[in-house]
Task: inverse folding
């Protein structure tokens, strides 16, 4: 991780869960972390958990809003110089049904917000991050926090459009990798696909997790592993699951 010391990492969805854990791990590794969230005050509180020589800064940003994303990345460039690492972590998973055939129908607004946050957000953030890296002639790294639901569709009624957005992230990661390679860019891009993670989005029965789950810290450590690879090595896809995970 020596090459990342003092460099700037941008993490979306940074106020809780996986995003918060990634912020702390990267700051502990000596990076300057900018956490994007709709609740930036929660990102500010993460600094007290940092034990390394890095730092955590917050910025309010709705990644589903293109203008907000553009203004945020402009601000980051002005405040901290160029972006070296982007972790597209923001995502939502409302439980419910797509159509009225089910008994828990999600509104059109909710369904479209899943698409906007889970897919539009990563695309727009990646565009601005690559532009920043190109301006600085720096070979950075983009990590898309995907899901095992981006590689198969769980047989369950509650997943609605969530697997579709994650399959799109799988395709987007590969498409952007091809584009970067075509133009001989050394910028890396990785899809990191966890199984069930014990966050607020995980299914519970009487407050307890329904299945074996990873912790947010497990995913954060996987991000650290991906970043620790030498410049000539790129991990395009990394899938991590609990040892005893059972598929739906």
Result:
């Amino acid at each position: 991780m020596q090459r990342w010391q003092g460099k700037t990492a941008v993490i979306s969805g940074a106020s809780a869960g996986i995003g918060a854990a990634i912020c702390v791990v990267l700051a502990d590794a000596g990076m300057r972390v900018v956490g994007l969230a709709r609740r930036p005050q929660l990102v500010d509180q993460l600094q007290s958990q940092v034990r390394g020589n890095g730092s955590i800064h917050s910025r309010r940003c709705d990644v589903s809003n293109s203008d907000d994303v553009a203004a945020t990345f402009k601000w980051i460039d002005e405040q901290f110089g160029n972006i070296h690492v982007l972790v597209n972590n923001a995502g939502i998973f409302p439980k419910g049904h797509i159509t009225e055939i089910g008994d828990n129908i999600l509104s059109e607004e909710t369904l479209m917000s899943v698409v906007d946050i889970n897919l539009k957000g990563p695309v727009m953030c990646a565009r601005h991050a690559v532009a920043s890296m190109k301006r600085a002639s720096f070979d950075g790294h983009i990590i898309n926090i995907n899901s095992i639901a981006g590689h198969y569709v769980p047989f369950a009624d509650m997943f609605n459009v969530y697997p579709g957005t994650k399959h799109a992230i799988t395709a987007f990661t590969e498409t952007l990798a091809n584009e970067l390679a075509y133009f001989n860019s050394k910028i890396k891009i990785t899809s990191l696909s966890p199984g069930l993670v014990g966050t607020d989005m995980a299914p519970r029965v009487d407050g307890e997790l329904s299945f074996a789950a990873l912790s947010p810290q497990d995913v954060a450590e996987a991000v650290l592993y991906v970043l620790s690879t030498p410049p000539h090595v790129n991990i395009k896809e990394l899938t991590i699951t609990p040892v005893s995970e059972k598929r739906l």
In short: DSSP finds six helices and nine strands in the chain. The beta strands are 8-12, 32-37, 55-60, 85-88, 141-145, 188-194, 204-205, 208-209, 237-240. The domain at 2-240 is CATH 3.40.50.720 (Rossmann fold). The chain has a mean pLDDT of 94.
